[in-house]
Amino acid sequence: MFETIIIAWDGSDHARKAIRVGCDVAKKYEAKIWLCHTPEGGATPIAVDPFIGAVGAPLPPEEIAAAGKAALDEAEALVKAEGCEVTGRRVGSVAPSDDVAALAEEIKAELIVMGRRGRGAVAGLLFGSASQEVQRAAPCAVLTVI
Ligand code: ATP
Ligand code: MG
User: Fold this and answer.
1) By the 8 A CB rule, do 105 and 137 touch?
2) What is the distance of C-alpha 81 from the center of its chain?
3) Proximal ligand: closest to the CA of 114
4) Which residues of 18-29 are buried (b: 16+ CB within 10 A; e: fewer)?
5) Domains, the chain, ranges and CATH?
6) Running along the chain, 146 residues long, what does each successive block of 10 average in pLDDT?
7) Which atom of ligand 1 lies at the shortest distance from residue 18's CA?
8) Residues whose CB falls within 8 Å of the CB of residue 67, separated by 6 or more in sequence, listed in order
9) Residues whose CB is less than 8 angstroms from the CB of residue 127 and which lie 6 or more positions away in sequence, other chains included
10) Cα(111)–Cα(1) distance, rounded to whole angstroms?
11) Whose CA is nearest to atom 22 of ligand 1?
């Protein structure tokens, strides 16, 4: 049923829970685990101030890649602590939902596991934007953990 599972990681407590659940499912189905993370900071500049330069400017690509690697190292350590191996890792570059959906398509994953919320600061939301978008865009089943 589930041969390949993707866990979407944003470093939040919700995503930690997704790792625990994803690993539990992976053990039961002997599934392969992929990790996917989209670092922040790739955004297009939203304004240019004559004194301080671009506001909201994208970070240099090497900084984004390093942030992505650090985030995925942390997630991989958590997966190993659950007694599972990581088959593959993807640092996304578009948006969390697009990146995870594209990866699912590419590796033919049958399941994406993610948190219902993430690191977002707006209290009271039932679903975060990434979780809503993934449910719309995913080519496979999505398990949103709470
Ligand atoms: P918002 O980002 O809209 O303010 P939020 O942060 O509370 O809301 P989401 O971003 O939808 O909620 O996060 C839900 C889940 O999506 C997270 O638990 C995580 O599994 C996944 N996710 C969120 N951001 C990323 C990301 N940058 N890379 C990979 N997965 C992510
Ligand atoms: Mg978020």
Assistant:
1) no
2) 19
3) 1
4) bbbbbbebbeee
5) 4-145 (3.40.50.620)
6) 97 98 98 96 61 68 93 98 98 95 98 96 90 96 97
7) 20
8) 39, 40, 41, 59
9) 116, 117, 144
10) 9
11) 10
Query: How do beta strands 88-91 and 111-115 pair?
Result: unpaired
In angstroms, the first-to-last Cα distance of the chain is 23
DSSP assignments along 17-56, one per residue: HHHHHHHHHHHHHT-EEEEEE--S--PPP-EEETTTEEET
Q: Interior CA angle at 56 toward 50 and 57, to 5°? A: 80
The rounded Å distance from CA 58 to ligand 2 centre is: 18
Quick one: pLDDT at residue 42? 58
